[in-house]
Amino acid sequence: ETGVTQSPTHLIKTRGQQVTLRCSSQSGHNTVSWYQQALGQGPQFIFQYYREEENGRGNFPPRFSGLQFPNYSSELNVNALELDDSALYLCASSTVGGHEQFFGPGTRLTVL
Amino acid sequence: AQRVTQPEKLLSVFKGAPVELKCNYSYSGSPELFWYVQYSRQRLQLLLRHISRESIKGFTADLNKGETSFHLKKPFAQEEDSAMYYCALSRGGADGLTFGKGTHLIIQP
Description:
With 112 residues, chain A is mainly beta.
């Protein structure tokens, strides 16, 4: 069984740029959620994808957007990067209605 | 809006001592509560959830709806319990998890 994988591990961007983060869900999982974890904070829910559509969203502006592909992998896109976007971005997969979310190792984004 | 509060940023206890990590929540409905753990250099993983009422690695947690708490307990701490612990709440559906800020548990030898 393959766990959740994320790429890249780290990246550095400058303010105003755009970034795409990628996630492959665990085998058998059809739902993907994205979280932002700032330093010293718990993860914050960004949004969730199921059947290639966003079906839940946290308190994040529209410049945070995503995609889910037929193989259930997902992308998180952030436009017009701000310094406060510097954080660890976590992807989690689950089965629909499943109670447990399985997390990836995260992508560390630094915005300068 | 729902909220999860973990009042202790850091908790240090000696090996063999009892451990209690506090978690309080605010939500008007019937939430599902979870404890997630992150060991050093490992990813976040589920430790236990209130609906299963099971004990994992000697840890238990009871949902107290009157006090809106879901404290995590273990009678005898072990060094391998040292980790970051997050309490989380789910409203169900597609709303994702709401996490507390976490408690760093250090078990001293």
